[in-house]
Amino acid sequence: MSTNAASPLWQSVEKTRSGLAWLSTIFDLGIRIWVAQVFFKSGLTKIDNWDSTVFLFGNVYSVPVLPPEVAALLATTAELALPVLLVIGLATRLGALGLFILNYVAVISFPDMGAVGIKDHILWGVMLAMIFFHGPGRIAIDEWLRRRLTPA
Questions:
Q1: How many whole angstroms separate alpha carbon 143 and alpha carbon 127?
Q2: pLDDT (average), residues 1-26
Q3: Which of 35, 109, 116, 122 has its CA at a distance of 20 to 30 angstroms from the CA of residue 148?
């Protein structure tokens, strides 16, 4: 096969690769936003009725080691702060790891979680693991900082 015959094919492959890279960037951001909103909404629910939240942490959830008030405060703070980090892409891997741990603790602490709840938590855990291991993608403050601070 001559170089001239392969050139249009190679150009098509490169255009496809470039288009997929652009879609991957949008997909990375979409995953971060989607999983962040799940946890953020949960945090908003907790602060909406703090007495109920503390009651749940003391009487329904079996959070190990921590007093219910401390567990409720830590979980609520994490659910409100860490999703913001995910969305803007700042300390993204740390935010994903924190929410992954929170997600895991939620699964082991709630004894009556049904099959659908378990599937949701598995999905969120996989998405958070993907963000942790893959990184935030190109639309992120982390990426902007990396480009600015990495020597040329």
A1: 19
A2: 81
A3: 35
